[in-house]
């Protein structure tokens, strides 16, 4: 099997699993208990908190554990909206956010908030001028992702943070794709809130965190016990949090070499696909791009068919269509960068990890060439296109 869907989820690293194991049936005490098996677990949780805080240049009291990236995004947006609605009801975000942000914004619109969805250019970059122009006296929150999960484009986060700070507006960033892949410093980028998720950097699924800058007024997400400084009730997911901390330490420690390796394979894949498969388009920014992201549109074919045929060869990727209510919708991200719906439907994302190899890249390119040619051979659109071309 060749696994190139690491933007969807990653393999939990064996050393992360090892770190988690004792916390299931050996150290199972409730972290809030007074006996030592409980307080030892509280220590393990706080060690994970310190590890993550250090990576971000944050204080450990600014890290709040959640059940993943979607929960962190929901919390940041809903709770900030509630806490700051006395100041205003306007939120700025972009058209290319993850659905955890976009659908939360739509929910807030129903609750009386106004949301500006910024356009992006053909590479997926937000315009700082358009951001500045969108700021109003009643703007309370800017939520712009650190890097996009589909096309890999890295946004100008420190410039966005500077604009937010200048206007006294909270800045939240969905860094689920960036944490563990790119260096992030919350002070340098003026980030007030940041979401991340364990399973995107070789940690366990269903656990993540929200960084909340000290002094930011934010409401509790879940009400109940006093866990997470009263802000997120519920007995802690101790094995998950320990795994999250171990994965964060591992990701930070290996970041440079992993990124260099992935970039090498990424650029090799991009180079070969562009030169060997006609009528394709690279999606996302060429340089400001996540190390492991490759995203192409192939004209005259369906990405879903391509994926199924890749799967028959043991290759895992993902397509630029999302299955919503049984129908295939073209990706909102690819539409936002200006692709016509039919080209968005012909898109495939390959997202790498450090486990991928050049040999795998070669196999994937050969299969892509063969499958794209085969699918085009069956496409009436392609036949028409060739005829029109022949007739000049
Ligand atoms: C995966 C992802 C999420 C959701 O994270 P979960 O932990 O799966 O809930 C949010 N934002 C981005 C950019 C993602 O890639």
Helix and strand topology:
Blueprint: E1 2-3, H1 14-20, H2 22-25, H3 36-56, E2 63-66, H4 69-84, E3 90-94, H5 99-110, E4 114-118, H6 128-134, E5 139-143, H7 157-166, E6 170-174, E7 193-197, E8 208-212, H8 238-276, E9 280-282, E10 293-298, H9 303-312, E11 315-316, E12 318-319, E13 321-324, E14 327-330, H10 332-336, H11 341-345, E15 347-351, H12 358-377, H13 380-390
Parallel strand pairs: 1-11, 3-4, 3-5, 5-6, 6-7
Antiparallel strand pairs: 2-8, 7-8, 9-10, 10-15, 12-15, 13-14
Helix pairs in contact: 1-8, 3-8, 4-5, 8-12, 9-12
Bound molecules: pyridoxal-5'-phosphate.
Described by strand count, sense and barrel closure, the largest sheet is:
7 strands, mixed
Could you tell me the radius of gyration in angstroms?
22 Å
The low-pLDDT segments are none
Proportion in helices: 40-55%
- Average of pLDDT: 96
Q: What string, H for helix and E for strand, traces the elements in order? A: EHHHEHEHEHEHEEEHEEHEEEEHHEHH
Continuous helix count: 13
- Sheet/helix structural class: alpha/beta
Principal-axes geometry comes out as globular
Q: Tell me the span between the first and last alpha carbons.
A: 44 Å
Strand content: 15-25%
Spatial ordering of strands, largest sheet? 2-8-7-6-5-3-4
> Care to count the β-strands?
15
Ligands present:
pyridoxal-5'-phosphate
